[in-house]
Design goal:
The structure holds 2 protein chains of 2 kinds.
Chain A lengths: L1 H14 L23 H14 L17
Chain B lengths: L1 H5 L15 E12 L18 E12 L4 E22 L3 E3 L5 E3 L13 E4 L5 E2 L10 E24 L2 E12 L2 E14 L4 E20 L7 H4 L6 E10 L5 E28 L2 E14 L7 E7 L9 E4 L1 E5 L5 E15 L4 E12 L4 E13 L2 E12 L9 E4 L29 E14 L3 E13 L15 E13 L11 H4 L5 H12 L22 E13 L2 E4 L1 E2 L2 H7 L7 E20 L2 E6 L1 E11 L16 E2 L2 E7 L2 E9 L5 E11 L28 E12 L2 E10 L10 E2 L3 E10 L5 E12 L3 E2 L2 E7 L5 E4 L14 E13 L9 E19 L3 E10 L1
Parallel strand pairs in B: 15-22
Antiparallel strand pairs in B: 1-2, 1-25, 2-3, 3-8, 4-5, 6-7, 6-16, 8-9, 9-10, 10-11, 11-13, 12-13, 12-32, 13-14, 14-18, 15-17, 18-19, 19-20, 20-21, 21-23, 23-24, 24-25, 26-29, 26-46, 27-28, 27-45, 29-30, 29-31, 30-34, 31-33, 34-35, 35-36, 36-37, 37-39, 38-41, 39-40, 40-44, 42-43, 44-45, 45-46
The chains are: A mainly alpha, B mainly beta.
Chain lengths: ~70, ~850
């Protein structure tokens, strides 16, 4: 049930979008508006999460000869 | 118009993707703390060192043509310190004198008398045997790992079309217990004037696990996996080391847990521009893992409270079995993610909200919410962030398992695994219910035209009490960690300043001064043609110029033991160890070294240089025929697996001043005076072998302040170049804290170079090295009283490499080099250079492993 409502919400979001002409997209291209503004730092954080948390993708305690990192 | 063109970049090919024509270098340090420490019955137990990890990362994405690019990423993690490998109530724990805690388990039938723990008849709370008191407190049993290193590499190819993008990648990961390779691809399609992007991705990974469990323990029952007919198996392999009486053997029974694991993942995502300042992205991922999903270094306590215990006792007899964990062979996981980014014009900032929900068929449900604010202010960017994570426990997680029944026995009287009331069991706290809060900040600053410096900090707090809705694991599992990182990001294409810059524009451009320096720099970048393995060969002549270079060295030694210039027999090698003897000799040593040179020219005739470096080493040993281990200080380690050990971390840091010297026309001369600062470690120990210090060559530092003078002369004419250098490492200190000083080094080298084209150059070089012996000896914790009544602290000897008398020598090597000026960086003279160095002759002192080849790589960038 929750999944269905989330999917509906996502679709509503998409269809409700305004058309943004190319010359009005300046703000979207500003630094910091990338989906990941700091990819290198992010990779380091993700590694910590995936070696500590079972919910991170592909994780649950893999890696690390001592099983620790 | 520009904004529209930039739109595809908002949807990176992967979370780690770089823009085209960018390179980065990053160092981070991770440290843990706050884990509960309980001595329990082990009254002299020392608090173990917390886990520490050093990570170096680097990579670049290079343009192939207008539409396609390749990227290469590399990372190295080195970790050491203690982590929990089992948990149990205090009442089930025991200790041996001077050693750490262990779960007091029922040994295998027939190996010893059965021992029974006790639980209270009414409350089922464990009772300590020694005191008779209830002791239900859950305690971590910790194990220390000696430094281990993981290397990872990733190669990817990306291609862009007008309304689509494709990314293909392959990666490898190599660490002592784990070897994996993966392939992935991602396709992006743009619609609706690029307001909408749809992305589909898939990846597959294969992993081989070969976990070293050490020699056979009387307290751990491995039979479930030793007797396995399929899937992962625990096997006994003969390794070099000592038997329980200390005699060298190459037939030491060492346990390895081997298996394979397969992962596949699919992802579909939608990115949508909502309005002129808002973009939304959502994705759904499915990941399936199969095979060896256990953590091979985690144990579980299975306790069976016997209800038939005579009622005269107020307790139930409870045999406890310590066994490796068992997880399902398959895991299916779904993850849904929603990300919203909005530009807030009033503050010139971007706000990000990111939510993920994941669930798997192990019973783990996880939610993550992250908020991020990217504030731009001139050359600065400040990005504070906060993240909350919560997960439910896996169905088969428990800190220990207590069953009220007689333990199921097989016909031999051992635990019958097929009749345990649960199918799977794990006490890995990563599968427990908990929450985590992390917060941190990334500070970025643009330095020079085209380089960015990033410094970040993050604190992470894991606690059962932070689990959403309560019911998380108890406090024993709580910990926190800190991570700091420093990185440089460099755009070779440069900013929106066209190259070459017209003179009239240059006159008004604030960066023009710098660009002109670069131009002169190349013409007078002395020593630029020097082979990659020559240190301190470069000098810059323009005041204010800055250069960063990355160097990598790989050295492998393998083969026979030598003395002088000839092969040595095992008997001779053993004799060199003296009366203490030694059980093994080195058979292979591998070293990886990553160096960052930062160089600045305050004046035309003086350069300043700083060079931190990271290293990792591994050593393999063979048993020495007739060898033996003398246990000092009365503490016996029993049988030892001495077949291999690894180490790594920060090395020493060099700071140097380079002075230009007068030289004839067409030639260049400079002197360097360097100081080696002892930032490396001289306390690397063999964690699993009684904590003895590793030999000199396996320490990452010298432990002393050393002087490093050098004199370089270089010249060129037309396509030819030549050069020579005299250098030394002088160690005036008397002793480091381990009781010794590494030998001084003198080196003379000369090279000839030839440039077949303006971009490429080749070199050949000869190297003569005189390396002094170590002075003093490794000081150990083992107290020995000599005949005169003096107390000394000696170090147990594992191999001839532990002895100062087996260090030093004279060596002649030859190096073959090639270098290439980077496309687009001709004016700056930025280049990549490689050199392969091989030994020609050697005359070593004492008994040493024969020397091998070295590969040196150098990549420099001027600003």
């Amino acid at each position: 049930m929750r999944w269905r409502s989330l999917a509906m919400l996502s679709l509503l979001g998409v269809t409700g979008c305004a058309h943004v002409p190319a010359w009005e997209r300046g703000d979207l291209a500003r630094p910091g508006m990338e989906l990941e503004p700091h990819p290198v730092q992010r990779a380091g954080q993700e590694h910590v999460y995936s070696s500590r948390e079972a919910g991170s993708a592909g994780a649950a305690g893999q890696g690390g000869g001592c099983g620790c990192y | 118009m520009m904004a529209a063109a930039a739109l595809p970049n908002m949807v990176p090919a992967s979370a780690q993707a770089l823009e085209v024509d960018q390179a980065y270098l990053n160092y981070s340090h991770y440290s843990e703390g706050g884990r509960a420490f309980v001595r329990g019955p082990a009254s002299d137990l020392q608090r173990p060192d917390a886990l520490q990890v050093d990570t170096a990362r680097g990579g670049a994405r290079l343009r192939i043509d207008d539409r396609s690019s390749v990227s290469l990423d590399f990372s190295q993690d080195t970790w050491s310190g203690a982590t929990p490998y089992a948990t149990a109530p205090l009442g089930f724990l025991a200790t041996t004198t001077g050693a750490s805690l262990y779960v007091d388990s029922n040994p295998l039938a027939g190996t010893a008398l059965p021992r029974y723990m006790r639980v209270d008849r009414q409350t089922l709370q464990p009772i300590a045997l020694a005191t008779g008191q209830r002791a239900p407190q859950i305690v971590n049993v910790m194990t220390s790992a000696s430094p281990e290193t993981r290397h990872q590499g990733r190669l990817s190819y990306a291609r862009e079309w007008d309304e689509a993008g494709l990314d293909l990648n392959a990666s490898l990961s190599d660490e002592p217990d784990y070897w994996s390779r993966s392939f992935g691809g991602r396709l992006r399609l743009d619609f609706n004037s690029k307001l909408t992007s749809l992305a589909m991705g898939a990846s597959t990974k294969r992993s081989d696990i070969d976990a070293r469990l050490g020699t056979i323990s009387n307290y751990i029952d491995y039979r479930l996996y030793q007797n396995a007919q399929s899937g992962s198996r625990i096997v006994s392999v003969p390794t070099a080391g000592t038997d329980s009486s200390g005699l060298a053997t190459d037939q030491n029974e060492s346990l390895r847990w081997r298996g394979q694991r397969k992962d596949v993942a699919f992802n579909v995502g939608l990115t949508q521009v909502i309005d002129r300042s808002t973009v939304m992205s959502t994705s759904l991922s499915y990941a399936r893992s199969e095979g060896f999903l256990e953590n091979p270094h985690k144990l579980v306590a299975l306790a069976f409270a016997d209800p038939t215990t005579p009622s005269a006792f107020n307790f139930l007899r409870t045999p406890v079995f310590t066994v490796p964990e068992k997880r399902p062979d398959v895991r299916n996981q779904f993850t849904w993610n929603l990300h919203l980014a909005r530009y807030i014009g009033r503050f010139d900032a971007a706000a990000h909200i990111d939510y993920s929900h994941s669930r798997d068929d192990w019973g783990v449900r996880a939610d993550t919410l992250e908020l991020k604010w990217v504030q731009t202010a001139g050359a600065w960017t400040l990005t504070p962030r906060v993240r909350y994570y919560t997960q439910t426990a896996a169905e088969f997680y428990s800190p220990y398992f207590l069953f009220v029944q007689r333990f199921p026995q097989d016909s031999s009287g051992n635990l019958d695994f097929s009749r345990i009331p649960v199918d799977n069991w794990s006490s890995d706290q990563r599968l427990s219910g908990f929450g985590a809060i992390s917060y941190g900040v990334i500070v970025s600053r643009r330095v020079f035209d085209d380089m960015r410096l990033d410094i970040s900090y993050e604190r992470y707090r894991h606690a059962g009490s932070l689990k959403w809705g309560g019911g998380g694991e108890d406090r024993f599992a709580d910990f926190h960690s800190d991570m700091i990182s420093v990185g440089l990001n460099y755009a070779f294409g440069g900013p929106a300043v066209p190259r070459p810059m017209p003179d009239e524009l240059a006159a008004t451009d604030p960066h023009a001064h710098h660009a002109h320096h670069d131009h002169h720099e190349h013409n007078d970048h002395a020593g630029a043609d020097a082979p990659a393995g020559v240190m301190d060969a470069h000098m810059m002549s323009s005041p204010g110029a800055f250069m960063a270079s990355y160097s990598y060295r790989f050295t492998r030694q393998a083969g026979h033991m030598v003395t002088g210039s000839r092969r040595a027999s095992d008997a001779e090698v053993l004799a060199s160890c003296g009366s203490l003897g030694c059980p093994v000799r080195p058979s292979e040593m591998v070293m990886h070294m990553h160096m960052l040179h930062l160089m600045y020219a305050p004046t035309a005739d003086i350069n300043l240089m700083l060079m931190p470096h990271l290293m990792s080493m591994s050593m393999k040993n063979d048993a020495l025929q007739g060898g033996f281990y003398t246990s000092l200080g009365g503490h016996s380690h029993g049988a030892m697996d001495l077949s291999a050990h690894t180490t790594g971390g920060f090395g020493d840091t060099t700071a140097a001043v380079l002075f230009r010297l007068p030289a004839p026309a067409g030639m260049h001369a400079h002197a360097a005076l360097g100081v080696s600062i002892p930032t490396g470690s001289i306390d690397e120990r063999m964690a699993h072998h009684g904590g003895d210090l590793m030999d000199f060559g396996m320490q990452t530092g010298s432990g002393t302040w050393d002087l490093m003078p050098s004199l370089t002369l270089a010249g060129s004419a037309g396509r030819r170049s030549w050069g020579g250098q005299l250098s030394a490492v002088l160690r005036p200190d008397h002793r480091n804290k381990s009781g010794c000083v590494l030998g001084d080094v003198l080196q003379a080298t000369g090279w000839l170079g030839w440039r077949p084209s303006s971009r490429f150059s080749l070199s050949v070089r000869g190297i003569y090295t005189a390396q002094g012996s170590v002075r003093g000896a490794l000081k150990g914790e083992n107290e020995v009283l000599d005949a005169f009544g003096n107390t000394s602290y000696v170090h147990a000897v594992h191999s001839p490499a532990d002895l100062a008398s087996n260090t030093g020598g004279r060596y002649v090597d030859i190096g073959f080099g090639a270098s290439m000026v980077l496309p687009g960086r001709e004016r700056e003279g930025d280049r990549i250079a490689l050199e392969w160095i091989m030994p020609v002759s050697e005359k070593v002192r004492g008994y040493q492993l024969e020397r091998g080849h070295t590969l040196a790589l150098n990549w420099n960038m001027s600003f």
